Amino acid sequence: MDYLKGLNDRQREAVLHEGGPLLILAGAGSGKTRVLTHKIAYLIEERRIFPGNILAITFTNKAANEMKDRIGNLLDNNVEDIWMGTFHSVCVRILRRDINRIGFERSFSIYDRDDQITLMKECIKERNLNKEMYKERSVLSKISELKDSMVHSDTYINENYSDYYLRNIGELYALYEKKLKSNNALDFDDLIIKTVELFRTNPEVLDYYQKKFKYVFVDEFQDTNKTQYELVRLITSKHKNICVVGDEDQSIFGWRGADITNILNFEKDFSSSKIIKLEQNYRSTKKILKVANHVIKNNFDRKDKNLWTDNEEGSQVVVENLLDAQDEAYFVANKIEKLVSDGYELSDFAILYRTNAQSRSFEESFMRRNIPYKLVGGLRFYDRKEIKDIMAYLKMIQNPADDISLKRIINVPKRGIGKATIEKIEEYANQIDENMYSVLLEIDNIPKLSTRAKNNIKTFVDIINKFMAMSEVVSVNEFIEKIVYGIGYIKQLEDEGSIESQTRLENIKEFISVAVDFEVNNPDGTLEDFLANVSLLSDVDKTEDVDNSITLLTIHSAKGLEFPVVFLVGMEEGLFPISRAIDNESELEEERRLCYVAITRAEKLLFITHSKIRTIYGKTEYSYPSRFLKEMPKDLIEPSISNGKSINRTKEKDDERLVNFVDYSKKAKPTINRPMPKQNVNSSEVKVGIKVSHKKWGIGTIVQVKDKDNDKEIVIAFDKVGLKRLLLSIAPIEIMKG
């Protein structure tokens, strides 16, 4: 096969580069994945490099799978030996083999955000600190920042000893690390940090991987942080055949530790390196690209390049000035319906926003019109209670030292093991410095436990021991099926007989399908491999595919994606750029890069909206157009038609009239993945946690239900207006299916 066919001159030069450090500066839509896949295929087929000597690192599993598929097509599926995946998944493979050398068991658990929060709650309680002052998420965010910068807890405590608050953060950090170790668990930051630690403290392990990986590729290099950079430096210091691909103009993750200097200083850190610029864009129209170039050229912290394209000129970029968020959603929905009637599919559209809070008005608008959409970063399949419950069983069976998972499932389904009993078990385990499951195995030794509690615990232990033995001899999907039936989870949901329990049953069955798919793609995969595979999924990876639906997502989540039509909404000062960046030059430059990324997601049409009034986080204020709009050339912009005046004030009648504006019956109707209103409220359906819709106050969640004078008094937390107390018999609400 001719591996250079269809490549432009610069792409061809990158593929043929012989060896040594190579930086490919790949502008948006310039075909970087094509270059990477062809270069790897060329090395294997023409240079006769063994696939197992190649390491390729991406930032999402989706990107890794796409690259692997493309290389497989080029090489007739000769790709299984290539090490290809995210930083985290590559590190998991390395740690499963050798983590015992730094004091952990190979069966370690990987804690997701919820697990981390649970563990931090324990730390704050144990340190007897004020819960209002020390919020779990804030403390964890600081710890993650310190880990990314490779700052040890002892160092942080010593540096901040005179500051009471910061010293306590350091103490929480130290306790958190201690508890992770005792649970034989790692968080996401640890996966890379512990691999670096393993390499630094075990020269023979490092030497093995340096010899193994003769060629190393890193995609999205501008998004690497300090520890990721150090990992790559250690692995490549022997052969120095490192090829990194990235674009400093798309460096948008500084808030989570990404260090733009990694790409800006590459040629200083890797001597004799070569730089190749990919500047031809294959994605966007000329006008969209010119708008993007005019915005990004206002940044100083960048390398000189200018994207160009042979694509058509295209339509003007539309900038629409609207009255408020409701008008903004109304405008977007109308425009989508018009474009669908012109021949576009719903899957062609993406709505990009700066913050997740902006999605609500668009969701409500689409729900009213029965337009299907999917939300990236919302409540995802893997975040649902029933899935996390089953995952906790699997984690605990695979790693009995995982106290967080054990506490989640010891009384799920209910088996008479109450909170007081669990606290006594945990207290005793802490006293003798053992994990909780070890204590459960000798339950008769725990004082002050009732005979009934001990018997219930023995039943639980028998179940877990049986599954531990079973996990060694059955397939992953069969094992999961045996667990959900064997623990009584399925029976409990079937006995409930509610709509909610039926949905949960369907989700569990879908989870078994996930395991089936995993086995098809990983015939030799173990339970350990399956758990790592699920644990390492990103927001974009986790998003459920819904055929022919609009995609709603933050600009950060849109990185690496492209859509024929993009709506970039909320382009206002204080929102985009975000308020905290306005007085900080480096943060403002990152906001501008974020704007550049948003613009370059669009292939054919780009609509940009901003409003005169914005209500967000409960505050309504006048807003001003984003400074980035002023950086766009006027001759490429189609000016606003509404010019800040309302286009949506005959609201209810217009909504009814426009519901069927587009005749979806002529198309294959996609499955709607969002809750839809249901008529006739039945008092038996009114429960805490249920979503409802109110004509005036919008979407809300029931937070309290009380019987009152042959009626029910319900308290609802509405997204728009906060808490409202209503009598069910006269409340103009509709229960939402979900």
How is this structure best described in words?
With 738 residues, the chain is α/β, with parallel strands linked by helices. The chain is built from 30 helices and 23 strands. The strands form 5 sheets. It has a 7-stranded parallel beta sheet with strand order 11-12-10-13-14-9-17. Strand 21 (711-718) and strand 22 form a beta hairpin. Helix 5 crosses helix 8, helix 7 (153-159) packs antiparallel against helix 8 and helix 15 (325-341) crosses helix 16 (359-369). It starts with 8 loop residues before the first helix and ends with a strand. Residues 649-680 have low confidence and may be disordered.
Which blocks of ≥5 consecutive residues have pLDDT under 50? 649-680
How confident is the prediction overall: mean pLDDT? 85
Computed Rg: 28 Å
- How would you classify the helix and strand content by structural class? alpha/beta
Strand content: 15-25%
Per DSSP E runs of 2 or more residues, the count of β-strands stands at: 23
